[in-house]
Design brief:
Length: 412
């Protein structure tokens, strides 16, 4: 059994002759409205989209109707969120994919009306949308309105006209769930103030007139964040080094200071056993609240060895993690960041070690997430290193003895 819902139970079956898997929705004709099954089949037969399942047949016997559809392999959004928290960038990317599916349905005069995590399937980093038992044509208004609490729009429980904005509300709640793990409208308070929060608020307005009206318009707004306003999206920024004493912690705290200067809520978290943060805290005046030390406008969280509640991290645009020395134990976690900074000094033995790391680890990845930060080098030394070595995205971090100095933004 793959799942069960208001309109029936879905089973995984195998076609004996073709030896292929199929999903079969089994609907008891004495307990359900048979028209629902035939309406779902009628809608699916006219939809041809890679993220929408194909319908192959519909059969009926004395007790059941069987809707035979393509089996969609993968993990549901519910299962995914139970295993990991999505960064804002990924959540926005998946929401845009969902918008594109619904925009295609709207172009074909159809509303889904049951968008929820259980009906969103992930496979190869793409989403597919299943369960069209609640779908209607845009010229219809259902006699019986049914929806999933927490995701269905207010008009699904009232008399207001159902339209394309009804699915937009559900997409907004799904996006909120991806970001917070909650499907309560109040969870919006856990998202940092900015354009993304404004867009979600525009999706989940109770008044259909004030809501973003179409999935295509929602996709356009989300794309504008993704491409033109990345500062408003939360990023997990990982900082590490291949050798001790290269200035990794210095770099992480400096990044936190830079983003705060830019007006972005930033926090720097220690993820190594050096205890450097506690050493720094002891020598400075600080404010302390909820596990966070604030020193000279920089927020620091020491490594509490897994004993601290990290829910507050959702309040920050930039989460900077100091990994210290990168080794086989933390390499996978380090590379999972949205942006990864590898810090090195200027000495030949440091550059040689970094070159080996790039050759064995970074170059095979073939992505643009990696940044090399060259520390302790003056402009002339930096130019010599860049000309000689093909490092990905090299950046010079000017030497500054005061770790909290509010100097220039060296990321520019």
């Amino acid at each position: 059994m793959l799942g069960t819902g208001a309109f029936g139970t879905v089973y995984l079956t195998r076609h004996i002759t073709l030896n292929v898997l199929r999903a079969v929705k089994c609907i008891n004709i004495y307990q359900n409205n048979c028209d629902t099954a035939y309406r779902e089949a009628d809608i699916l037969k006219n939809l041809r989209h890679p993220s929408i399942p194909i319908i192959y047949d519909i059969e009926q016997d004395s007790e059941h109707i069987y809707v035979i559809e393509e089996y969609i392999e993968g993990m549901s959004l519910t299962q995914l969120i139970s295993q990991q928290k999505l960064c804002a960038g990924k959540a926005v990317e998946y929401a845009i994919q969902l918008c594109n599916i619904i925009a295609y349905m709207n172009d074909n005069h159809t509303y889904h009306l049951d968008i929820k995590p259980d009906n969103i399937i992930f496979f190869n980093n793409n989403i597919r949308l299943v369960d069209y038992g609640n779908a209607i044509l845009d010229v219809e208004q259902p006699d019986i309105r049914m929806g999933t609490i927490g995701y269905a729009s207010p008009e699904m429980y009232g008399k207001e006209k159902i339209n394309s904005g009804s699915d937009v509300y559900s997409i907004g709640m799904v996006l909120l769930y991806m970001l917070t793990g909650m499907n309560d409208e109040g969870a919006i308070r856990r998202i940092g103030k900015g354009r993304l929060r404004e867009i979600i608020n525009g999706c989940i307005c109770h008044s259909g007139r004030e809501r973003i009206s179409t999935a295509r318009e929602l996709a356009r707004r989300l794309e504008s964040i993704k491409h033109n306003n990345v500062e408003n999206i939360s990023l997990n920024i990982h900082v590490g080094t291949v050798l001790k004493h290269s200035g990794c912690t210095h770099c992480a705290i400096s990044l936190g200071r830079i983003y705060e200067m830019r007006g972005q809520a930033a926090i720097v978290c220690e993820y190594n056993d050096s205890n450097d943060f506690f050493k720094i805290i002891k020598s400075e005046d600080f404010r302390f609240f909820n596990g966070i030390f604030r020193l000279k406008n920089v927020n620091l969280v020491p490594d509490y060895h897994g004993h601290a509640d990290r829910d507050f991290l959702s309040d920050y645009h930039k989460i900077i993690v100091d990994f210290g020395v990168i080794d086989e134990n933390n390499l996978e976690s380090f590379l999972s960041g949205d942006i990864n900074y590898i810090v090195t000094g200027k000495e030949p033995y440091e550059i040689d070690k970094l070159t080996e790391f790039c050759r064995n680890v970074l170059y095979p990845l073939n992505n643009n997430k990696q940044r090399i930060v060259i520390n302790y080098a003056d402009r002339k030394q930096y130019k010599q290193i860049v000309r000689k070595y093909d490092f990905p995205c090299p950046i010079r971090m000017p030497y500054e003895p005061d770790i909290f100095n509010s100097g220039k933004d060296w990321l520019i």
